[in-house]
Automatic annotation (TrEMBL), chains A, B:
<comment type="similarity">
    <text>Belongs to the Casparian strip membrane proteins (CASP) family.</text>
</comment>
<feature type="domain" description="Casparian strip membrane protein">
    <location>
        <begin position="28"/>
        <end position="174"/>
    </location>
</feature>
<keyword id="KW-1133">Transmembrane helix</keyword>
<dbReference type="InterPro" id="IPR006459">
    <property type="entry name" value="CASP/CASPL"/>
</dbReference>
<keyword id="KW-0812">Transmembrane</keyword>
<dbReference type="Pfam" id="PF04535">
    <property type="entry name" value="CASP_dom"/>
</dbReference>
<dbReference type="GO" id="GO:0005886">
    <property type="term" value="C:plasma membrane"/>
</dbReference>
<comment type="subunit">
    <text>Homodimer and heterodimers.</text>
</comment>
<feature type="transmembrane region" description="Helical">
    <location>
        <begin position="74"/>
        <end position="98"/>
    </location>
</feature>
<dbReference type="InterPro" id="IPR006702">
    <property type="entry name" value="CASP_dom"/>
</dbReference>
<feature type="transmembrane region" description="Helical">
    <location>
        <begin position="110"/>
        <end position="139"/>
    </location>
</feature>
<keyword id="KW-0472">Membrane</keyword>
<feature type="transmembrane region" description="Helical">
    <location>
        <begin position="31"/>
        <end position="54"/>
    </location>
</feature>
<dbReference type="InterPro" id="IPR044173">
    <property type="entry name" value="CASPL"/>
</dbReference>
<protein>
    <recommendedName>
        <fullName>CASP-like protein</fullName>
    </recommendedName>
</protein>
<keyword id="KW-1003">Cell membrane</keyword>
<feature type="transmembrane region" description="Helical">
    <location>
        <begin position="164"/>
        <end position="187"/>
    </location>
</feature>
Length: 193, 193
């Protein structure tokens, strides 16, 4: 009962203290989504980096043959892109928290969020695609190209790590799209009808 | 001389008939960019589809061994994604042209443009990445994986077509980011200061 009253009170106060930009305030969701994006980037990087696996392969005599993410340029780009996304999401989480007390800043910040989020979406989506294309080749091989055989039946742990990392990055891409949608709705609600 | 007068007249009439959303009108640039995106998607699809090349390979006796985009799942996804982008960009070019005479529609349309453009950016960027990852493998090979050799010294025409198509798709991704930026600026300019 007390919490309902308090909630109602806060809502009234917010809408009365900011008369000019009369939009809905989505900054709470924004902070949460940005933190989720940070967590997703961190998990994706940690999972792919810890996937190293060494198997003994007979070419032509038995030699240990390691699989590491940094042997494949596509995975290096993936790790770099997700590190950038992680760093970006920390900075913007802090910016979003900082702005939640300053109504005058918010409209300007929403614009900058859309501009930068669009760039980051391009980076994280292309990185997910790049790693996904090469990982699919490792999983299935390509019978139309001589020698491009699947390797995931040998490097099972490495492939599990890569697959999980790509799935988390895909989730991160969806979160970035949601962030753009949230900022767009928020800025649209401030335009007078 | 007559055309200049007419142009100035139109601009005055537009700005005086829309007093509420006093933002700058970027719809002309929007139409141009969307048409450029359509052209880029079309070129990318046509170039990769026409890249078929057949070479005689000795495995173990000489056989003709064709290279086609549809033999590689990454390139199939690339063609599908760019076809969707092309179709989307025609529809939104028409929507943007249609809305340029209807000021009441514009703010709502700008919101929808940001929402859909963000989705399309995710699709085109991931498709460019997917095709790029596999194409890079074809160009350089991967010496850390047994058998994943480069093939572009044999399939030179096919690789040129794939490379050109990916370059055009990358340009299309950048145009999509610019479209989001344009819509964001446009909707931001309608929020009262």
């Amino acid at each position: 009962m007390a919490s309902t009253d308090k909630h109602g009170d806060t809502e009234y106060r917010t809408s009365s203290s900011t008369p000019a930009p009369a939009g809905v305030d989505y900054f709470k969701f924004d902070v949460i989504l940005r933190f989720v994006l940070f967590a997703a980037s961190l998990v994706a990087v940690v999972v792919i980096v810890t996937g190293n696996q060494t198997e003994v392969i007979l070419v032509p005599q038995p030699v240990p043959w390691p699989a590491k993410f940094r042997y494949t340029p596509a995975f290096v780009y993936f790790v770099a892109a997700l590190s950038v996304t992680g760093l970006y999401s920390i900075i913007t989480t802090l910016a979003s928290l900082f702005a939640s007390n300053k109504p005058a800043l918010k409209t300007k910040l929403l614009l900058y969020f859309i501009l930068w989020d669009a760039l980051i979406l391009g980076i994280i989506a292309s990185a997910t695609g790049t790693a996904g294309g090469v990982a699919y080749l490792g999983l299935k091989g390509n019978s139309h190209v001589v020698g491009w055989n699947k390797i995931c039946h040998v490097y099972d742990k490495f492939c599990r790590h890569v697959g999980a990392s790509i799935a988390v990055a895909l989730f991160g891409s969806i979160v970035t799209v949601l962030l753009i949608w949230l900022s767009a709705y928020s800025i649209h609600s401030r335009v007078p009808k």
